[in-house]
Amino acid sequence: MGLKIYFLSCIGLILFPIACKCKVYYSERLPFDLRCSNYLSKELKHEINSYRDIVQHIMEQMQSAPLKDVLYDEYTKFIDKFGARPSGSKVLEESIDYMVNLTIKYGTDTEEVIEVKTEELEVPHWVRGEESVKMIRPRLKNIAVIGLGSSVPTPKEGIEAELIVVRSFHDLEQLPKNDVKGKIVLFDREYTDYEENVKYRIRGASKAARKGAVATLIKSITPFSLYTTHTGEQDYKKSVVNIPAGAITIEDSLLLRRLFDRGEKVILKIGMQSTYDTKISRNTIIDLKGVLYPEKKVIVSGHIDSVDVGEGAMDDGGGMFISWFVPVGLKLLRLVSKRTVRSILWTAEEPGLIGAAAYLKRHIQELDNITFIMESDEGTFNPRGLDVAGSNGARCMIAQILKLFRPIDTLTENDEPGSDITLFTRKGVPGASLLNDNERYFWYHHSRADTLSVQNKDDVVKCAAFWAAVSYVISDLSVDIPRD
Ligand SMILES: *[C@@H]1O[C@H](CO)[C@@H](O)[C@H](O)[C@H]1NC(C)=O
Ligand SMILES: *[C@@H]1O[C@H](CO)[C@@H](O)[C@H](O)[C@H]1NC(C)=O
Ligand SMILES: [Zn+2]
Description:
- By secondary structure, this protein is α/β, with parallel strands linked by helices.
- The chain has 14 helices and 15 strands.
- The longest helix has 20 residues, at 313-332.
- The radius of gyration is 23 Å and the shape is elongated.
């Protein structure tokens, strides 16, 4: 009885580093004014509305004992037990085994409906060593620093060089090469939004190296700081010298800029150690089999890996856990739908969507059988609705479904919602990312402050309830979410 576990093995050599992007849209409630009458028949509206009671049932059950406590207790136990789960680490693999075991624990009580398996792939394994930045001139000061993922180390003795501070790539381009050569470049870009600022994290080192710089620092990507440093993946361009790259606090970045702007000669000494190789990791796939169309899948997902600092409680422990709880929670409620509800715990999202890329490659023939793909990787604060990619017809259908969830009924439109699932939505698979009140997300993102203290039980549980109920409706409707 119970579960079948398959450990499939395959070494997918997919190592094209993509930007780790956890885009966040602070969308105002956009009026969804597409002419949906063209897309939604009376019958379909009627059918969607017939799910009102079951939606209410799922929302209520998931937000009361025992389910809410099962979810939150297991979530906090997981984070406390493993902490950070960086790509390629032993602790990440142990945490994957643990989630497989946990699925078996909650999935084997009745009929054979939940299956869990893992699929292997090769992932980057970058390990941070000792890191320090000292200001030598105009006065001595220790500057807190955090290396960026995949950064090369400095020589053992460190790099001591004069600092040059720029606000943008444009400013850097304007400088004569001789002004940059042999120096350390600090990108002190004012925070506007993650998408714009993250370009400096990802490409800063290569842009500066092209001008002859010997190391780069960026101002940490956050709108708010209590002297926190924020890491994340960076990506070297081919054919450019690889130079060390780190992030410093907003506070120190502003200090260095003020000194530089006053014409002070600023000298820094940077020491950053790290190692890099590759390891095997696994995506985890959990299926609650559909009774009518088992080959059709509604996928709900989050990533189990995290950066190496903090606890990965918010990014993406919360999103991963509520996604894990969709098939498991529905099963505990004895709710099986027409299509298969598949939860995927992606591995190695942080170094560049490596797990999702391997899954896409391996399952490329099955894209038409993905009815809808969802991801929670932008926080599990109070849920607001969905950020949706797809045709007008798809968005109209999702908008109609969201009406069952008032007030969690905001629909924003985005061709590339989320992070891992953008690989799928770009290929025409309709999908959505969880909208939530994540205005403070980047305060904690990729920093030592990403701990369970960021999370609120009622909010996480409400996200889980919404996530499960939406998945249930989409996987049970008589028609698929339409494509173009
Ligand atoms: C998972 O379960 C297996 C079999 O019971 C056990 O050997 C293993 O130690 C468990 N792993 C974790 C990480 O809990
Ligand atoms: C969908 O799944 C079924 C059953 O596995 C398979 O026969 C079919 O080829 C798949 N279709 C597509 C387009 O993926
Ligand atoms: Zn993430």
